[in-house]
């Protein structure tokens, strides 16, 4: 308690610095997931992807990042265990921010797409065990985390596989791919819009005061999606294509349509990601700020100070702009060769899995979900289409994320204790 009383302002400033670093790491690693397939399919250049992600990630983080955040991220530790020693919780949260941020930046440097959520959870567990003991950790939460390494990539992979197969059978493997594109693409537009609307309503709009029931959200999503499908039908119908063109030109024209769908999906996913995953950076930071402001009292939730959301949003944007390229390359080109139609199948499967997870409470990593979806698209063309070496490195990075975050947090926690004692 003496540490909070004597160094309160300093602790908040240090937490803000490390929270910014954590947001930087999120931008460098996790945000690239939303744009990696668009860049890999050449639907967007890296510069265009960065600009679009900057706009939508910041908008999601700032406009829909939430007015209230849980003091302890994901309920992974019991805050009551720190009731008598709030200074340990403050130092631990600061250590967790720096540990997770450093791991994300290191992973981004090597081009490994890892889970930002698992990074911060591993870090929080690490400091909790050495500061209070194993009893401070709610170990039952770990079953879902470990299970998510298998379950979420499997779900998104299966959805992406069948989505891509349907595109192949209905459009590309036919005598008249352009005519069939005009017939079926409005349906894919409806499906895309429906999933995007559900993701946005579920993850974003509740934070800006628009609280819709599940039924109201579904009806609004269907209405918007019908309008989008109709607009898409008018757009495709109005396109003039030369029927004398060879099949390669027909395929190229169809791929352009899927490229447009990919860009729309990427924008929506970036907004949803900004509104949701910015909590990985601002959750622990907000906890530190609120505990210091309350003189050491630990509450169940904390109101976010006005400066925290912009700090997280700006950190995410800078991280993407400076270090996002390698992870985008891994996701977009390293796992398998993507075309706009393949990338569309992967992106839509990712969004659909997010909707399923939100509705069922399934623990999820957007990174692992997208990697699973890209794998599913690759498997639709045979296992030889996958770069197994890249996949091996990705899976290893997933497994070591939790212990890496924990080990770094423990070391930093002891350093902070020595500095502020």
Describe the structure.
By secondary structure, this protein is mostly helical. The protein is about 75% helix and about 0% strand. It has 15 helices and two strands. The protein has helices at about 1-30, 30-40, 45-65, 85-110, 115-130, 140-170, 175-205, 215-240, 245-275, 280-295, 310-325, 325-335, 340-360, 365-380, 390-420; strands at about 70, 300-305. α1 (about 1-30) packs across α11 (about 310-325), α2 runs antiparallel to α3 (about 45-65) and α9 runs parallel beside α13. The longest helix has about 35 residues, at about 390-420.
**Strand percentage, roughly?**
under 5%
Number of strands: 2
| Radius of gyration, taken over Cα atoms and rounded to an integer in Å | 22 Å
Strand order, sheet with most strands: 1-2
Q: Compute the average pLDDT.
A: 83
Provide key terms for this protein.
mainly alpha, 421 residues, 2 strands, two-stranded antiparallel sheet, 76% helix, elongated
Quickly describe the structure.
With 421 residues, this protein is mostly helical. 76% of the residues lie in helices and 1% in strands.
Reconstruct the topology from this structure.
Layout: H1 2-29, H2 31-40, H3 46-64, E1 68-70, H4 86-110, H5 116-131, H6 141-172, H7 177-203, H8 214-238, H9 247-277, H10 279-293, E2 301-303, H11 308-323, H12 325-334, H13 340-360, H14 366-379, H15 388-420
């Amino acid at each position: 308690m003496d540490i909070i009383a004597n160094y309160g302002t300093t602790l908040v400033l240090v937490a803000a610095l490390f929270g910014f670093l954590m947001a930087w790491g999120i931008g460098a690693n996790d945000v690239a997931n939303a744009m990696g397939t668009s860049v890999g399919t050449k639907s967007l250049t890296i510069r265009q992807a960065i600009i679009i992600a900057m706009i939508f990630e910041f908008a999601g983080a700032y406009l829909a990042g939430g007015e209230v955040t849980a003091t302890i991220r994901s309920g992974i530790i019991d805050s009551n265990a720190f009731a008598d020693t709030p200074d340990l919780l403050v130092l631990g949260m600061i250590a967790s921010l720096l540990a997770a941020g450093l791991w994300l930046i290191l992973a981004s440097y090597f081009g490994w797409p890892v889970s930002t959520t698992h990074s911060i959870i591993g870090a929080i567990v690490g400091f909790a065990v050495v500061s209070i003991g194993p009893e401070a950790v709610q170990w039952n939460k770990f079953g879902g985390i470990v299970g998510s390494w298998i379950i979420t990539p499997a779900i998104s992979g299966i959805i992406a596989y069948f989505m891509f197969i349907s595109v192949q059978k209905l459009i590309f493997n036919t005598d008249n791919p352009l005519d069939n594109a005009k017939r079926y693409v409005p349906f894919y537009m409806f499906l895309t819009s429906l999933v995007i609307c559900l993701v946005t309503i579920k993850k974003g709009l509740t934070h800006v005061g628009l609280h819709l029931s599940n039924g109201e959200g579904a009806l609004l999503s269907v209405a918007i999606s019908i309008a989008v499908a109709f607009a898409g039908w008018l757009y495709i119908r109005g396109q003039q294509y030369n029927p004398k063109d060879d099949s390669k030109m027909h395929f190229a024209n169809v791929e352009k349509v899927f490229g447009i769908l990919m860009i729309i999906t990427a924008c929506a996913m970036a907004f949803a990601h900004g509104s949701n995953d910015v909590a990985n950076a601002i959750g622990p930071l907000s906890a530190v700020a609120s505990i210091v402001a309350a003189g050491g009292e630990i509450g169940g939730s904390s109101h976010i100070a006005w400066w925290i959301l912009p700090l997280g949003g700006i950190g995410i944007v800078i991280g993407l702009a400076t270090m996002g390229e390698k992870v985008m390359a891994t996701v977009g080109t390293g796992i398998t060769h993507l075309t706009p139609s393949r990338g569309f199948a992967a992106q839509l499967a990712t969004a659909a899995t997010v909707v399923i997870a939100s509705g069922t409470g399934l623990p999820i990593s957007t990174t692992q979900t997208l990697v699973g979806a890209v794998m599913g698209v690759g498997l639709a063309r045979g296992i030889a289409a996958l770069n197994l070496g890249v996949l091996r490195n990705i899976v290893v990075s997933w497994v070591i994320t939790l212990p890496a975050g924990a080990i770094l947090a423990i070391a930093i926690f002891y350093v902070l204790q020595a500095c502020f004692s």
